[in-house]
Amino acid sequence: MYELFSRFRITLEEMMLEELLAELPVRDRLQYERAMSTTGYAYAFSELGDRLFDELADKIATRRQYRLLFEHTLKPELFQQIRIAAAGYISACLNSPIILSEAEMLERLLEARSTLPNYTGTGLLMPKREHTLAFNLFQKSVAEAFYQLGANDLIDAVDLPVNLRMVYGKTDAKKLGLPFASSKCHSDVWAGVAADATVIIWRHR
After folding, report:
1. I need a surface site. Which of 66, 79, 117, 188 has the fewest CB within 10 A?
2. Cα(129)–Cα(150) distance, integer angstroms
3. Which residues contact 113 (CB under 8 A, 6 or more apart)?
4. Which residue stretches of the chain have pLDDT < 70?
5. HEC string of 21-46?
6. Is 19 exposed, middle or buried (0-12, 13-18, 19+ CB in 10 A)?
7. Which pLDDT value is given to residue 28?
């Protein structure tokens, strides 16, 4: 059964790559044959990935220094919208009926560091049933920001939910030893993220 699945997967990958390669300009027969060879598949996939990433960067990058990494500075109003929604979600996790100020959140997060039930060992702040509304509003604020990036024709899908991760100044040694600790060297592909995905990290300067 495993062998049958493997053959099907390889055949499917070959079909997908041939379809993708058809979109690339074929300069000569030699180049095409190289792309069809075993090592050529990796080369062709990498070349296609660069082209697609370049198209995305050309549309929305505000700063780019590296081949597969660029920055995009959100409009202040969009960033503020996400910030308020994130504060609402964190406040809900702290059982606050109102949105706390940044100083209040930091103070209460430090107090609840060892007792916050939905704070995972990998740094994620996961929602419980009572946090669903605030969590969904946070997701909506990020989705709206994506929509206004102006690259909808290049984005097939957005992998949701968006993770909200908190890192304290000093991590518990026991948590560092967890199987999926984010501090360990890893690839998101191992967790099922598509190989051609673009990973987005929001940060406040």
Report:
1. 66
2. 34
3. 119, 168
4. 1-41, 171-172, 175-183, 186, 190-191, 195-196, 198, 200-205
5. HCCCCCCCHHHHHHHHCHHHHHHHHH
6. exposed
7. 47
Q: How many residues does the chain have?
A: 205
Residues 6+ apart with CB under 8 A from 28: none
DSSP string, the chain: -HHHHHHHHHHHHHHHHHHHHTTS----HHHHHHHHSHHHHHHHHHHHHHHHHHHHHHHH-SEEEETTEEE-PPPHHHHHHHHHHHHHHHHHHTT-SSPPPHHHHHHHHHHTTTT-TTB-TTSBB---GGGHHHHHHHHHHHHHHHHTTS-TTT-----SSPP-B---SS--HHHHTSTT-TTS---GGGGT--TT---------
Report the distance separating Cα 200 and Cα 180, nearest Å: 20
Residue carrying the six token digits 């790559």: 17
